[in-house]
């Protein structure tokens, strides 16, 4: 076996407490290189009577490695352990002290999980696992109160531009909550609502005032109360990396320069703070001079922003925060942010905007989740024909191995957002591909989110085209697509195995874009069959039991001689399930 490929460390995603009694262990080996991995476990103070061997499951594989997992319930909440790795006639032992071709006497040099402290267990809001999120840009969702429209407002449904307005507001959201409830939505993610000169509101002027074009603070509270009455949670967007140039403390810096009492609230590299040759003399979001970057290490700034976070959690009983440009804010700030928010609402859902591997924010002391853009990119590349089943399996499995299981169960999965082209546009206008991608979204591990209007067929290219007005006239909506979304939402909400169960690819071959995968918990076993080609295909896979049924029609679908054969139309899918006998 290739010893250089063996990897384990007793921390992070490799050894972690899943709950107050359970430890999860992971080991990496070279792909297709070993036959088995056994976790040799026990208590370091009583090894003989607590010794227990666990054969680890091959949970995932990517292009280069296999990943093995085991669940351990130590007798005394602490664990010493080593791994016995077998490849043919070769046996290797991996310990904290090194790799050996013999079994060192326990427990010296063994890995240790010293103790499961409940306070250190990564905990995430339970409700987020059951949530179906719906992302709303308030300015583009519905115009419920024309009296608060901006002075220049374009007719509803016109072409979005970087700086035009259509008059969407919170009253419009309130008017359409029944529509969201009918679809099956039980959580809303609002893009920024606070006072700002732009249509997108990511340049905040007043963090404690709802933008007058959207309504009032009292109206926002009414919206949240109405949502809660319908079982819908609410998450707002927090822009704490930067503000608007119109933000009063920054205006003071522009006016008074180095004499301003707010000069250390920002990263001013040279006074006066201004634009020189197209570049600001102060740090900004990107290179946008109208969005100066906060110095979140400054105690006054930190306290100001933490007060904002706490204010809205208390004032409107907010259920969560989505954190804009979260990776550009210091970790110390986010640790204090979590402490403040969770003190008021322990079940608040904290989602960071990080576009890459986010493990350093997901150790239980900062975020509960992140916006899973890598998920969207890989899923859409696959369903657009950019990779075969084996490559897709490798890449999705690699994503699952990035984080601990409890994080994977609530990672914020979406297929598009206000920062990307629309889903239907991203799949070339092919509704069959859109459906395949959505089936994957709703049967994959994590918390799914729909971008408003995707369910009725709205298209749109890159920003600002993706931020079109919602279509409310039913004769202009794709109602068949709407019914499909409604069906998939119902299926996920009805079946806990699709929200918490094991995910694993069963068939994903090189050169073949068709896949089969499973979700399963202790009660129900699902298999999902997908034909990601433009021709009719028959997919086959061994099935031991004969009690399979179609999850959408409930008709019986028995295998023949231990093999299930499923014929699918071009870009077709089928979802099967069986109840697990107790």
Automatic annotation (TrEMBL):
Protein name as catalogued: Neopullulanase
Entry-linked InterPro entries: GH, GH13_cat_dom, Glyco_hydro_13_lg-like_dom, Glyco_hydro_b, Ig-like_fold, Malt_amylase-like_C, O16G_dom_2
Gene Ontology molecular-function annotations: hydrolase activity, hydrolyzing O-glycosyl compounds
Organism superkingdom: Bacteria
Protein family: Belongs to the glycosyl hydrolase 13 family.
Keyword Protein biosynthesis among record annotations: no
Gene Ontology biological process terms from the UniProt entry: carbohydrate metabolic process
Domain Glycosyl hydrolase family 13 catalytic: 135-492
Annotated organism of origin: Paenibacillus azoreducens
Keywords in alphabetical order: Glycosidase, Hydrolase
